[in-house]
Write a structure and sequence with these properties.
Length: 173
């Protein structure tokens, strides 16, 4: 049963990515509300406020100022040259991906560089696939991410790459 659910999710993502890419949230909601031609089913999306407002209110409530999230670790080493190597890795990453935040830290006994602020595993997988072309040892790291990192200017969520449209004559059902 689990395998079937995974396959269904991937099929929806594959075919949905081409039609959803570049649409506004409102246009996407309208499209979801239209009945499906095969099943007649539709989706109703209910939102209550923005994510930024929720995070801001959460911060004012005195609750913890971090949330469980994901980043992609592109460097992890404890050799004598690790300090300089980590700085070079971060610099290289910033040149290749200027819109994605990077973080360099020393966690005894290792220097590490992590990138991105992902709230879901799916976002982290997208980012890992994007980064892995340049940093082959990249892996997903799960941990606590300060809420203010999500509020910083810019969109830190990696976007899926555009899926090319498949001509209808090439689609077999």
């Amino acid at each position: 049963m689990r395998g079937a659910a995974k396959i269904a999710v991937w099929v929806v993502m594959l075919f949905g990515a081409a039609s959803v890419y570049g649409q506004s949230a409102e246009a996407f909601r309208r499209e979801l509300s239209l009945p499906d031609s095969l099943t007649g089913s539709s989706v109703r999306v209910a939102e209550r406020g923005s994510a930024a407002e929720v995070i801001y209110m959460h911060d004012l409530s005195g609750k913890p100022s971090s949330v469980s999230g994901y980043r992609v670790r592109i460097f992890f080493d404890n050799s004598q040259a690790a300090r300089n190597d980590s700085a070079h890795a971060q610099e290289r990453f910033r040149e290749l991906f200027p819109d994605i935040p990077s973080y360099r830290a020393y966690e005894s006994p290792s220097w590490i560089v992590t990138v991105g602020n992902c709230s879901t595993m799916e976002e982290a997988l997208i980012l890992q696939n994007k980064v892995k072309r340049s940093f082959q040892t990249a892996f997903i790291w799960r941990g606590e991410i300060p809420l203010e990192e999500f509020l910083k200017e810019g969109d830190n969520v990696p976007q899926e790459e555009q899926v090319p449209e498949i001509p209808e004559e090439n689609i077999e059902i």
